Amino acid sequence: MPTSLIRRCSAGAFGLLLAVVSLPLGRTQSANAQTTAIETTATPDETVECELLIVGGGLSGTSTAYESLLAGRTVCMTELTDWVGGQISSQGTSALDEAKRQRELLFYAAGYKELRSRIKDFYGEQNPGGCWVSVSCFLPRDANTILSQMLNDAAQRGGGQLKWFPSTAIKEIALSADGRMIDSAIAIQHTPAANAPPLNSETLSATLTDSYRYEDSERFTKKVIQFTPPATPKQAGPANWYVVEATETGEVIALSGVPYRLGLDARSPLNPSSPTETGDQYCTQGFTYTFGMERTATPQPQPEPAYYAQYAPYFSYERSRDSKDYFDYVFTYRRIAAPGPRLEGSQFGVSKVAPGDISMQNWTWGNDYRPGTAADNLILTADQLAATGQLAPGGWLGGLRVETLAKGEENAYSYYHWLVAGDTDSQLGPNVKTPNPNHRFVFGFDAPMGTAHGLSKHPYIREARRIIARPAYGHPQGFMVNEIDISRADYRDEYYQTSLGPDRYLKLWQALAGLNTAAVIEDQVPAADIMRRTRSTIYPDAVGIAQYAIDFHPCLTLSPPEAPGNTEYANIRKAHGQAYPGQIPLRAMIPQKIDNLLIAGKTIATSNIAAAAYRVHSFEWSVGVAAGKTIDFSLQNGVLPYELVDNLPSREPMLEQLQRQLNAEGNPTAFPDTSIFNLDWEAWRVW
């Protein structure tokens, strides 16, 4: 931590499509392919019973807990940090990313609408920061307060019980002898040791490994907690508890050995914009340590971090503008506090910047850190995990490269210094960047990020391990939501015919034919004569909704990312842009092999391109609702989640019952007028 900154369709059509576009998924990651029991290695200090163990207290974990508490369930929830809310709290991205039409209609899950209302009630306005990227920007510390109260209120209203375990890291998973059930889980909760500084005094890179070790340290005192199902369950059934994977990077996925993907998918008719023929497991989207900076009336000392020169060649305002108002453009982009009198006039459709205003920084050519090689990737692959001993019994240490975390932290501090003191721009050239010294870096336990060092408690993670769900009708190698299921891309672009070649290009257009799929295959219609459907794929097992742009913060070509002249992975932004309103299929939440594990958050079964849209705030809430309601339904009815979808595309009466419940309670499973016949979605562009 730099001391200088410590200041404050029909079945027939599906069958034909399967024959045409079914392709190998490429290399999968499944490290623990055992079918025998996995036992934990530690003796617990405490055993805790619950009907749901939610691993990860981000937005999807919080919404899973919220729905489960309303249903009267006993919920255990662990979280590596000491805040609930993930994206909008501990990761600092407290600016709601929302699609325009969806926001206009407030067409969201009920709990997400309640969250938005509580933000407005808390501040007296929906956008207390007066930002322009969103209609709601606010302080991360307040998001934790608001969500905590929502969970308390849900427990009171529904009669559920929340057992909350902050500062707790998942360590081991115990599987049954046949490998189909999680029998128990071990976690480690840490508190400050005697005479040690408070939590959040050090950055995550300094504390991560310690948090995952059983032994006490000079920094932490540890408690080993075993989570188990209730000794006396409320209902008898094939499973008497469930584990929900809601971590930011897919820790339970890696630990439990279910098949998953990481990084770029191979180019195919289903993901035609992929820039690689083989896939690339090291290239995931950039991660970001957010921070707050305050406008001051007078210039402030701006000491240069010792490592600044290493990172300075990376930074850029990125977007060319007609006038030289770059700095305020970036500052108001995610301004999260504007506590003083608003100045007359406006900039970018919002009020002008005044002293005391605080901006949260989250910028692609700024504090995004974008590694993409085997030497510096953040989320370790299965091979890397095995090589470092993290898949051995008791060896799990979080599955991240700590050195890359540390460099992301240095990059964030350096970006602040560039903003206030730098005079270069890596993308726009000279005579663009001027110093802006009337600012201070904000830090402290009462500051927006709640940390002594001023960075977010955890980096914002845009892309994680993603399961390959169970084989299903039309998906013999595992179900997945793919690019063409949601993208509005112009697939007539010559790029696709060139990169795919004629055979795969034809298969792409056959897959895009919608209701005409069978006919265009049988009649051998040329690709140039096929009309595409102009809607997203409609899923019979939809349990939630999602819409946002396919939005990339891509990895960079060279290592390290800050290398002068570095460029984004070639052609990686080809899919970047508009997407149709989409759905969350239950099949995407059900992993292979394990029957009482449900996946929430950005770790559901999507390709990396689809994941770029299925990652924002309202999606996380909606998928959490789906997880909570599906588990409650399964416990009540004595079924396993996969049994709700295993006969598709035939009717699944119990699935339909679950969907009716979701919709009746204000949790939509489809957007208005969703139909295989409705091809007019122009009003639903994201921006």
What does the model show?
It is a single chain. The chain has a five-stranded parallel sheet with strand order 4-3-2-8-21. Helices cover 25% and strands 13% of the residues. The chain has 16 helices and 21 strands. The two termini are 39 Å apart. The protein is α/β, with parallel strands linked by helices and 687 residues long. The chain has helices at 11-21, 59-70, 100-105, 110-123, 140-158, 204-211, 251-256, 308-311, 326-333, 382-387, 402-421, 494-511, 517-522, 608-611, 617-637, 653-664; strands at residues 46-49, 52-55, 74-78, 161-165, 168-175, 182-192, 220-228, 242-245, 260-261, 287-288, 291-295, 335-337, 346-347, 350-351, 358-361, 368-369, 439-442, 466-467, 542-546, 582-585, 597-599. The protein has three domains: 46-94 and 139-256, FAD/NAD(P)-binding domain; 260-284 and 463-684, no CATH class; 286-379 and 391-442, no CATH class. A hairpin with a 6-residue loop joins strand 5 and strand 6. The longest helix is centred in the last third of the chain and has 21 residues, at 617-637.
State the gist of this model.
The chain is of the alpha/beta class and about 675 residues long.
